[in-house]
């Protein structure tokens, strides 16, 4: 059954973590509305490609222009079946937007599926929804998960974790697991 999914993005969201779920979820019949605060349908965000190429942390290269297909203004949880949060640098500053945090809280309070990958769980932590729950994220975000009262799921970079309505993963190599588990949770 087709679902309506809200995807929260911003400039320098991770390219794969934005493009792949957006396209894959549409491919299997879901509607995905990609929105960004202070931007409108038809505007774009710049993405960044993060790669693991031998440095102490990931490298960052310019990505694509990702065109938004919906407006952030007026968006509300009641109009959607699920929420998706890509990683990259966008969650770092999106978590400063109270309207974004309220949306995350609303989806969680409604028990709707929430998928977050890489740095996406920074929004979950900032929204205060991780207390007593287990969540994966990019390893550098583990302290935020723990400080917000959550338990960090230290899993393989290509694995995903489910805790109730939360489907989380460490980074884009987990897409097969993360998106498959999210699709399962969507059908419940």
From TrEMBL:
**Which parts of the sequence belong to the DJ-1/PfpI domain?**
3-184
Name the SUPFAM superfamilies on file.
Answer: Class I glutamine amidotransferase-like
Which InterPro entries does UniProt cross-reference here?
A: C56_PfpI-like (IPR006286), Class_I_gatase-like (IPR029062), DJ-1/PfpI (IPR002818)
Q: Which PANTHER family match?
A: DJ-1 PROTEIN, DJ-1_THIJ_PFPI FAMILY PROTEIN
In the record, the note on similarity to other proteins reads:
Belongs to the peptidase C56 family.
Protein name listed in UniProt: DJ-1/PfpI family protein
Please report the organism this UniProt entry assigns to the protein. Answer: Leclercia barmai
